[in-house]
Amino acid sequence: MVAVKRDEISLWRDSQLHGGMEILQATCYEHAYPPHFHDEFVIAAFARGAQRTRVCRKTGIAAAGTIMIIAPGEVHTGEAVQRDEGWDYCAFYPGDNLVNEVAQTVLSGKGEVNFGQQGIRYDPAMARRMLHAASVIKQSHDILEKECVIYHILNLLVSRYGERTVKGSVQGVARADIRKAIDFLHCAYTQSLSVKEIAQVAGLSEFYFMRTFQKTTGLSVHQYLTQIRLMRAKGLLATGIGAAQVASDVGFFDQSHLIKHFRVHFGTTPGLFAVASL
Which of 96, 150, 215, 240 is the most buried (most CB within 10 A)? Predict the structure, then answer.
C-alpha cells in the first residue's frame, strides 16, 4: 500500500514585503526539520497539535496557542510530538534590520533588539493574529494591506517581548578563528571545498577545527555550508532562475542534489517555492 503524504507545506518569498520576506503556512506530520539556521528572525505561531523543537541545544514543546521567536543564526530543529497528530503553524522571516527599525519606534534604550532566552511563549491571542496575518498576506494582492498587516504584527511582538540592549542574542559571539571560517564559507560557498582549506583559514588543525566548529555553531562544517547554499538558492529561485542553473550557481553537484536538500530542509521543492514566490 502506498503511504499517503499528509504534509502540506507552503513556503514563499513575497518580493513586495521589505525586499523579499519569506512566509510559511504548514501542516506537518511526517516532516522533521533537521538542525538548521536562518539569516533572518523566525517568528512562528502554532494553531494545532504540537512541535518538539530544539533551539540552541534547549528543547521545548510548541503547542497550539504558542508563539516562537528565534534569532538569526540560532540553530534549531522541529518535529511532531505525536506523528498521528502533527502540527499546524505559520512563520514569518523578517530580517534583523526590519525588526530593529520597528524596535526603534516602540522601545526605549539602545542597542540591538533582544527577545531573551524564552523562545516559546503561550499567547493565544497573538498566535491568532499571526495566523490570520499569514493568510491575508498569502491571499491579498494589495501591497498596502500586506505591509500594514506585517507592521502590526511586528509592532505587537517587539513591544510585548523585545528589549533594546547591548548584550545581544543568546547565541553570543563566535570565537574569532571560527568567525573567519564562517566568513570564508559565505564568500566561497560556490566552490568545492575541503576541511583542510577551511581549517587553514581559521588557523587550526583539521580535526580540532571540525570539533570546535561543531561545538561553536551546533552544525558540522558541511551542514553549515549546505545551509548557506540553500539560502542563496532561495534568493535566486525567487527571481525566476531555473533550478538547474541555481544548483550550479550555488555549489550543488546538480539539480537533483539541490532538490534533495531543499526537500529535507523546507519540506517542499525548489519548483514549488519558485512558483509561489513569483
Answer: 150
Provide the residue type at 168 as one letter: G
Whole-number Å distance between alpha carbons of 164 and 151:
18
> How many Å is the maximal CA-CA distance in the chain?
60
Residue 170, pLDDT score:
43
Which residues contact residue 139 at a Cβ distance below 8 angstroms, ignoring those fewer than 6 apart?
A: none
Strand 33-36 and strand 76-80: the pairing is antiparallel
pLDDT at 253 over 80: yes
DSSP bridge partners of 5: none
Q: What mean pLDDT is predicted for residues 212-225? A: 94
Instruction: Report the distance separating Cα 119 and Cα 268, nearest Å.
Output: 25
Q: Which regions of the chain carry the CATH code 1.10.10.60?
A: 176-277
Q: Which of 58, 18, 33, 34 is nearest to 171 (CA)?
A: 58
The mean per-residue pLDDT over the stretch 144-167 comes to 91
Question: What is the pLDDT, as a whole number, of residue 174?
Answer: 66
Residues 48 and 87 sit within 8 Å (Cβ to Cβ): yes
Which among 20, 134, 32 has a CA at the least distance from the CA of 87?
32
Report phi then psi at 157, rounded to 5. -65, -45
> Rounded to two decimals, what is the model's pTM?
0.91
Q: Which three-class secondary structure state does DSSP give residue 32? A: coil
pLDDT of residue 110: 86
Q: Which fold has domain 8-165?
A: Jelly Rolls (2.60.120)
Residue, of 165 and 146, whose pLDDT is higher:
146
Place of cell 551542514: 223
Q: Where in the chain is the domain with CATH 2.60.120.280?
A: 8-165
The percent helix, strand, coil of the chain (3-state, each to 5) is: 45, 25, 30
CATH code linked to domain 176-277: 1.10.10.60
